[in-house]
Design brief:
Helix content is 59%, strand content 12%. By secondary structure, the chain is an alpha/beta fold. The chain starts with a helix and ends with a helix. The relative contact order is 0.11. Bound molecules: cobalamin. The site of cobalamin has 39 residues, from helix 3, helix 4, helix 5, strand 3 and strand 4.
Length: 208
């Protein structure tokens, strides 16, 4: 087993030089439980490089895209789905930071959850889909504060339609301010894909 720090350094180097094959090799050499911390830590390091001006926007953009694509090949859906799941969906609300949502989706699917991926949606489209698909647990990812505040609008519009939906949120603004989820009327907040799994399992238990 390779040290996480060694893997982070190798993945960072591969991504910054846009070496997709090398990035794939590094991710495949990681244990399943290391994939999420590996990608998150590496992208955060690359993000810091962007903030200090050492990394170009194109490099950070391509790094995200490469990780997103590779996730599909690395984490396959688990065929033994968890029994009696309520209808669930995940969406990126308003902004375009899609990688965190992709990781949560892929890891949940690899853990036996069956959930819809709505991609990036605005408030009204999201509410419409939730009603149409009879969603009971809605996972929302946002990476920017203005998007995070829009969760409150989602809740209000769901209530106007009389829909009882559990909302779980995650992403940078919620990690920076751990009380924010309450201000936007979400039911829970998670900092990682493993948190998402724990929260959803508890909600399923409570709904029984
Ligand atoms: C990569 C990145 C980009 C990439 C996005 C590429 C892509 N395809 O996603 C690019 C370069 C395109 C980009 C653009 C911009 N970005 Co940007 N970006 C980042 C950066 C450095 C990393 C984000 C990331 O991918 N992290 C890795 C992923 C895996 O982690 P994650 O998303 O946090 O997800 C994990 C957890 O949060 C959690 N999670 C996530 N969602 C959910 C959901 C649920 C339900 C649960 C339980 C858990 C959960 O689990 C995930 C896996 O562990 C962050 C810095 C940061 N600290 O987040 C800034 C950041 C998010 N960006 C920021 C900004 C300002 C922008 C721009 C406006 C910049 C500009 N001036 O153009 C644009 C806006 C684009 C848009 N409209 O959406 C700010 C937002 C600040 C704010 N308070 O609003 C940040 C915080 C940087 C900063 N410190 O200023 N960005």
């Amino acid at each position: 087993m390779q040290e996480l720090n060694t893997l982070i350094a190798s993945l960072e180097q591969a991504l910054l030089s846009l070496d997709r094959l090398k990035a794939q090799e590094v991710l495949q050499s990681a244990l399943t439980g290391q994939v999420e911390p590996l990608i998150v830590a590496t992208l955060e390091k690359i993000g810091e490089g962007w903030e200090t001006g050492d990394v170009a926007l194109s490099q950070i953009y391509m790094s995200g895209r490469i990780c997103e694509d590779l996730l599909n090949t690395i984490l396959e859906p688990n065929n033994e789905a968890i029994a009696e799941q309520p209808k669930m969906a995940i969406a990126e609300l308003h902004d375009y930071h899609l990688l965190g949502k992709r990781i949560v989706y892929s890891i949940m699917r690899a853990s036996g959850f069956d959930l819809l991926d709505y991609g990036q949606k605005e408030v009204d489209e999201l509410v419409e889909l939730v009603q149409k698909n009879e969603i009971k647990i809605l996972l929302i990812s946002t990476l920017m504060l203005p998007s995070a505040l829009k969760v409150k609008e989602v809740r209000a519009k769901l209530e106007l339609r009389g829909l009882d939906v559990k909302i779980v949120v995650g992403g940078a603004p919620f990690r920076f301010d751990e009380q924010l989820y309450k201000d936007v009327d979400a039911d829970a907040m998670g900092k990682s894909a493993s948190d998402a799994i724990k929260i959803v399992k508890t909600m399923i238990e409570e709904q029984k």
